[in-house]
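Interim report, section 4.2 (structural modelling).
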Amino acid sequence: LAAARPFRTEVSTMIHATLKQLSQQLASKQISAVELAGEYLNRIEALNPALNAFITVDRDKTLAIAAHADARRAAGEAGLLTGVPVAHKDIFCQQGWKTSCGSKMLDSFISPYDAHVIEQCDAAGLVTLGRANMDEFAMGSSNENSYYGAVKNPWDLNAIPGGSSGGSAAAVAARLAPVATATDTGGSIRQPASHCGVTGLKPTYGVVSRFGMVAYASSLDQGGMMAQTAEDCALMLNVMAGFDARDSTSLEREREDYSRDLAQPLAGLRVGLPREYFAEGLAADVGRIIDNAVGELKKLGAEVVDISLPNTQLSIPAYYVIAPAEASANLSRFDGVRYGHRASEYKDLAEMYEKSRAEGFGSEVKRRIMVGTYVLSHGYYDAYYLKAQKIRRLIANDFSAAFAGCDVILGPVAPTAAFNLGEKSGDPVQMYLSDIYTLSVNLAGLPAMSVPAGFSDNGRPVGLQIIGNYFSEAKMLNVAHQFQQLPIVEGGKLNILVGDQEKVIRVTRAHMEED
Amino acid sequence: MAGSPAGTTALLCHLNKLIAIYSPTITYQRHGWCVIRRICTSVSRCRSQAQTKRKSAPQELVGVVGLEIHAQIHSNTKLFSGSQVGFQAPPNSLVSFFDASLPGTLPVLNRRCVEAAVMTGLALNCTINRKSLFDRKHYFYADLPAGYQITQQRLPIAVDGTLTYSHLGGRKRNTVVTKSVRIKQIQLEQDSGKSLHDDYRSQTLIDLNRAGVGLMELVMEPDMSCGEEAAAAVREMQLILQALGTCQGNMAEGQLRVDANVSVHRPGDPWGIRTEVKNINSARNLARAIDYEIQRQMVVLESGGTVQNETRSFDGKTGHTIPMRDKEGLQDYRFMPEPNLPPLMVYEACSTAPPGVAPSQLVVLEEVRERLPELPSVRRQRLVETYGILPEHSFTLVNEDGLMDYFEAVVRETKAGPRKVIGWVMNELQGLLHQQNLSVSQSPISPQALAQILNLQENGQISSSIAKQVFQELWKTPGKTAQQIVKEHDLGMVNDSTEIHRICQKVVDSHPDQVQAIRGGNKKVLNKLMGLVQKETKGRADPVLVRAILEQKTS
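Predicted structure of the assembly:
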């Protein structure tokens, strides 16, 4: 197979480079955008068959974009990230690219327009490497719900990568892309970032435009990114954030440089630890890793505050009412009339709908559409949707009370490290329960991150969650960046700043050897 | 089937009779074409009549009518997208990605549409909600691309208004009766696309040009009791919307769509079970549909049956309403808040708006109020006060498109008084227009031309009967001037008193019996002689002069 294509040594180490490093190498002409894209494409070609992180890769198109980036640089019109490759989650509409959202329903959908996020990335000169795999319509926590098959965790091919942005996380973790766009509705950036050992950021609701982002639950969906470091996330957020009049929930704020506070010392930082996040259900190894991380931050001068988010438990039922309700409405448009999958035989309009939707949607999507339809039904609205909205308000109040006494909140992202493929796919409730630490943030519209913090007993990555107050992205990134400057040693092996080269390469070798 | 076989037969028999007598008529009050065009049907039964007719008799069933009006907002672009609004464009040529509900597209509210709804609300004396909300109403249909319509179910933009309208009432049905209907709410919502069914090839084609066009849904409380009232209310609504420019109001083109909720009950009893009548394309058909439906329900109840809560479609050819096959009555719309749109805020003044909001994005009541044009009711009052015309004439002037402008143009250009002008406009002009089915703008006689005729008459150059003759001639040969016609047909007034003396003498000589009668005291016979003189002069003799001469000769 194509895996035989050898890497140039200097370039194959380049795949571990951060955005900042790549930017410098491109600027100093050590490498061209075309060469860089070529190397990543080679790596994708070699490793993607095992990882399934990409749904669509188009070498010619990518190289053409890269050539354009080089031309821009030659013309002196390059920005900081011009020529840097990026993987886009298959949820962002991108003109001329299949935008499937992980669904059979949109397998034939070539977007005729660009999402705001895509426009911003294109304008910055980022080079699209391909379209990252995901749970169908972003519904899932394991990436097993993709029509294009499950994504594998690069750290352990038997483990799930997390979801729904599993393709983005696996791509960045396996160095198939230096950075990837992603979305987070109930943890879909933070949880896969945690499981794959990369840094992920979900901004405040309204900071990144949802225009062109295929909607799952509109009041919760928010675009963000994954990269190796917090600094890279800051650079990428500078590209992606910004007011967009085409999204009425987009917030009109002054532009800010999200990397401005990275170097700030953490002395005096008040770190809130919510009791409810360290209670029953949290795996011992994950708990230990988070405790260690908090200990490291204390050494940097952070002060720990005990806080309470009493309605945390209620976030699960509230989320699994609101999100399916909105999804059932948002996904009504997929009817086979104008685009997307249409059944081949039907006798009337009703049957066309029924068959097209039955064939086009996977089981988790159907489940959520049915739940959503049920909770919005006449006579049930007050008991479910309205009550869930009230809980949502309570949860937001919990956070504002907590932030009165601390600057950031720390905790785990998920109760356990990545579980095995197939382990929970038969039990949706177990799957939903694993979202306990991430859902509240979406319900409240807050920003949050996942930062690699260590490895579980079975050697799988575990992330530390940092939750900030509204619009405190720069503060969160500051905390994450300072944390990532520490030579954190986990099991005597890992330097999380550049990822565990040994591990990545081992995974890589294992795969190449298999090939 | 409910009821006994005999009951069924009676019912059918009654229905057949209804079909036979069901010939709708449009009648016009009094002589000529003045006052309000009265829409009534042979089965009209207004509550007011019923009540006045039999106050002490056992209470009889009366109709209860409420309306839901969908008014297409007259704006350049759609409610939530930048697509143009147009009705003659080729199918699917005015469709944005949002209108086609492509994945990832989002609604952006069109401020112009909001202002149209606010202005309409103000004109209908509504309370404008400073904060209103958008909701999704779900149903699957091929011309509803998103699978839901964005509407305002919970908190609409305007509530609690009134519409005052008038129709003819009284014993002779020649008095203007003014009534009002409460406006429950005005909500902003999206229009759907159109499904075009090709039965021959058994396929359905979808045109999304209309999808997403802004609508105002105006919900009227069931304060009306018959078709005539409903038609008059809708006509007034049309005039108001047209005056505001917020809706073009053409029912035949679907710019104004009216659904009627109809039930019957005995006054004092709770309301009966209602039906919703759809597919009504004119004010006339609205009256027909409602009156048919009231009558049908009465027949059903009087023969012991029950009215079904259903949606019925009006068939303009037969004048009947028939149950619609759709399952709309059973549909659960699963309303939910629209998460893509923040609350819609309307501010009293620019100064009360929060800082940071761009002025171009603000909807400010003060500004909209300032732009409110003269409303039809104010206009009528102004006409009555300014020109001293009858209230019913003011209705005709305002209700007929362009007639008021025509009238005022004539008044400006003639020495004749407004009351004289109104007579000409109501009788001569309207008469010919209606006879030939023309609109005011299509009149072959311009206001200036009519003013000339009236001036000739005022100056004593032609008599009033000649003036009418000139009018008729001018209608046939619109290129000419009134003067030309007078000259060509030798219609000028005969002022030569010798000549008139001669003719009068001739008439007096040839009618000795009449002269005798006049001398005997029957002065009325003088008119007969005057007529004969005018006949002789082809109506050109100055009637004052003729009378004086005849009086002298018969004394």
